[in-house]
Amino acid sequence: MPEPDAAPEPQANHGASNGGSTSPRTAAVTTRRRAEPLLLEVAWEACNQVGGIYTVLRSKTPTMVRRWGSRYCLVGPYDPRSAQVEFEPSPLVGPVGKAVKRMRELGFGVEYGRWLVTGRPHIVLLHLGDVYRYLDDVKYRLWADHHVPTPGDDQLLNDVVAFSEAVRVLFTVLGEQEGQRRKLVAHVHEWMAGGCIPMLRKENWPGSLVFTTHATLLGRYLAMNHPVFYDHLPFLNTHDEAKRFNVESQHGLERAAAHGAHVFTTVSDITAAECEHILGRKVDLVLPNGINTARFAAVHEFQHLHDQYKQRIHEFTIGHFFPHYTFDLDRTLYLFTSGRYEYRNKGMDLTIESLARLNHRLKSEETPVTVVFFIVTKAPRHGINRRELQSAAMLQDFRKIIEQFKDQIGEKLFFEATAGRIPDLNLLVDDYWRLRLRRNQQAWQRDGLPSIVTHDLHDPDNDSVLNQLRTCNLLNAADDRVKVVFHPDFITATNPLFGLDYDQFVRGSHLGVFPSYYEPWGYTPLESIALGVPAVTSDLSGFGSYVQHMELTGAGPGLFNVPRRGRHPHDSAQALTDYLFEFCQTSRRDRINLRNAVEDFAQHFDWNNLGKRYDEAHGLAMDRLG
Questions:
Q1: What is the pLDDT of residue 229?
Q2: What is the pLDDT of residue 52?
Q3: How far is CA 450 from its chain centroid?
Q4: CB 164 within 8 A of CB 193
Q5: What is the pTM of this model?
Q6: Cβ neighbours around 412 below 10 Å, total
Q7: Are 599 and 523 in contact (CB under 8 A)?
């Protein structure tokens, strides 16, 4: 439904006797007649899943729709693959619909409709190809007006520039139609959409501009390659470093957006310090990332769901390890880490070092616990290892045989028992199925050690995770108390090894481990606790730093913050090892209490609470415009 807009503001000259100014009473009437503000949120990942910002936008939309109603609209690039699944067209009504209609008249391909996520917000999807006919002119303006170089041989960069120009055209049309009758607020995320900000400011666009960087691109590169990134950050020449990493264009777009916005924000105090040095502007506000806790809510079923999905992980464990040797699944704990394959930034190096120490300590103290640790990330790979697929197929065969045993034994046992006879169970199953079971058991047995990786990697000899696992002697020996499974692909329901969604895999686990070195926010530990699973974070992640500075007395049990800021890696690894060892001593009842505690604590990060920071940013932007 189109929103009921107020009438346009009268243009008559009020009160010539006071220099043409408006009297207080008339100003109040004018304000009442002015239409309510319109908010447009722009991001490369709107209806276009690439990384974490997609999660930010998707989870936040119910809160934004409750706050803004039909006056809230997202803007993203048109991708036919994602649009086919997540987009539904709508009639061209309301102020944004009218602007889309005008853009089409100007020869631009534009889609307008609903994003099919919770809240069903309005969204505009811009075709990038229509800008390519004058892309060189756009690049010239970026260089001439804002000193941002954009070479022509980078397809992603070309698309980013085209997207920024298409957003500029949309907002220019919207400003012409609505700028005199309502306040317009554009909230732009990340450098991939930020190029529109300096262009709009040069044209004196009548609306307010908010820019949020979730992580500086140059900072991410520096952290991956600089051993003491945070200590040396104030002394780095960012222009030279951007050239060294060949991200001069991206850095230039990000810097121009930061300086062109009325309000500049980021997601954590750690990234705020990074922005000041790398982008040359202090942030105005910190907007922490939240979650939609309703999406994860399991009411009183979370323990039942944990048991249910843990059984599925048990099946993988049986298929992966039991052809070689067995261990007690009732005394097995499932720990995991996950995220983008940034070996150092995500703390994978620290995690593996701590696992090696934990393995030694569990063995030396004869702790009767087995830890199976999953490293879940997306690395270059050919496909699932042939032996993994064979094991998965054989497990299914075992199930078919056992089902036959159950059917035959159940039927014959019933007749024997009702006839008053004590049956010989060995005679209740046909010889065929008994022979089939023995053959399967023989084929099931394997020599050697279980693999530490589930897939065939492109370059296993130079893989950072595999090399450190080998160096630390974490090779899944029978006497190892810590077993490791490197799964170089994201877990989905179509995965033949697990048959679980990622959320289900997390629920079935006991602990998530995310001791990041560079993490502007960190959704993985937050999602973990929202699913009722204790987690490890670090004080160098935005989430961990935020928790550390909360007015509450920390997170309480179930969320451990590894001290990494200003610490030697040896000390951080020892702190993590101590916590993991302590976790291995917990009883089942203790772990249930921890799951209750973290699920309750996650409510602090619901968008209903953290969305108020966005309201503050939008209000500040409108105040600064006047």
A1: 87
A2: 84
A3: 31
A4: yes
A5: 0.84
A6: 15
A7: no
**179 CB neighbour count, 10 Å cutoff:** 15
Strands laid side by side in the 263-266 sheet: 87-89, 110-115, 122-126, 72-77, 38-42, 184-189, 208-213, 263-266, 285-286
In a domain, 3, yes or no: no
- What is the C-alpha to C-alpha distance for residues 497 and 392, in angstroms, rounded to an integer? 6
Domains held by the chain: number: 3
Strand pairing category for 184-189 and 122-126: unpaired
Report whether 583 contacts 559 (CB < 8 A). no
Domain residues for the domain of 444 are 386-448
Q: How far apart are CA 132 and CA 248, in angstroms?
A: 22
Token pair in block for residue 27: 């100003």
Amino acid letter at 275?
A: C
Spacing of C-alpha 386 from chain mean position: 30
3-state secondary structure of 541: strand
Q: d(Cα 270, Cα 290) in Å, to the nearest integer? A: 17
Strands 370-376 and 482-487: parallel
* DSSP collapsed to 3 states, 438-456: HHHHHHHCCCCCCCCECEE
Q: Are residues 173 and 105 in the same domain?
A: yes
Contact between 151 and 247 under an 8 Å Cβ cutoff? The reply is no
pLDDT exceeds cutoff 90 at 145 = yes
SS percent in the chain: helix, strand, coil, step 5: 55, 15, 35
Residue 383 CB neighbours (<10 A): 10
In angstroms, the CA 71 to CA 376 distance is 40
User: CA-CA distance, 116 to 114, in Å (whole number)?
Assistant: 6
If you search the block for the tokens 């550390």, which residue do you land on? Answer: 548
Buried b (16+ CB within 10 A) or exposed e, 225-244: ebeebbeebeebebeebbee
Choosing from 410, 429, 448, the residue where a domain stops is 448
If one counts every other C-beta atom within 10 angstroms of the C-beta of residue 89, the result is 11
Q: What is the pLDDT of residue 4?
A: 37
DSSP 575-592: HHHHHHHHHHT--HHHHH
